Q: What sequence folds into this?
């Protein structure tokens, strides 16, 4: 291999690696569920950006964002997707996992009063409880009801959620002992 060929191959490799890194960066930035304020009715809507498409475009230039899902579709399918400007302005702020994690920050479980600390979503994630004492995991709550849930529910830890759900389902199997 001549030095020129070597230089060419090295240059091509740098370009490819650079493109892949840009692509990966775009994918990580735009993946996930988001809540935006729909510009049409000024109410929260749950959306997803077509992150894989944005990642492919980012390898060769600028990613042009597009939605892949919206809770207002198919009724509002074909809208101008003006909400994308909110995502471009603050991609992290409207990410559902960030909104919910922020909500637990500094709070304590309604039942055991333990602080939540760092949240591990893949392992024993915290839940919420409503006024009637019914607790829910986040995957049971439609994303478009997220904001409403945050303002009407209380935080509960995983252990209390499981214990309380069992108590409600099988009251005959649970005996309360007074604390020592
Ligand atoms: Zn608890």
A:
């Amino acid at each position: 291999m001549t030095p020129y060929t070597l230089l060419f191959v090295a240059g091509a490799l740098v370009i490819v690696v650079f493109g892949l890194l840009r692509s990966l960066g775009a994918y990580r930035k735009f993946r996930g569920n988001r809540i935006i304020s729909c510009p049409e009715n000024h109410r929260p809507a749950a959306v997803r950006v077509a992150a894989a498409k944005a990642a492919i475009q980012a390898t060769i230039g600028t990613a042009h964002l597009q939605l892949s899902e919206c809770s207002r579709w198919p009724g509002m399918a074909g809208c101008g997707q003006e909400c994308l400007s909110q995502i471009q302005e603050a991609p992290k702020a409207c990410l559902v996992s960030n909104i919910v994690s922020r909500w637990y920050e500094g709070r304590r479980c309604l039942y055991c009063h333990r602080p939540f600390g760092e949240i591990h979503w893949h392992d024993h994630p915290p839940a919420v409880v409503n006024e009637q004492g019914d607790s829910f995991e986040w995957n049971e709550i439609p994303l478009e009801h997220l904001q409403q849930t945050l303002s009407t529910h209380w935080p509960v830890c995983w252990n209390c959620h499981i214990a309380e759900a069992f108590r409600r389902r099988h009251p005959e199997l649970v005996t309360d002992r007074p604390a020592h």
Observations:
- The mean pLDDT is 90.
- The first helix runs from residue 3 to 30.
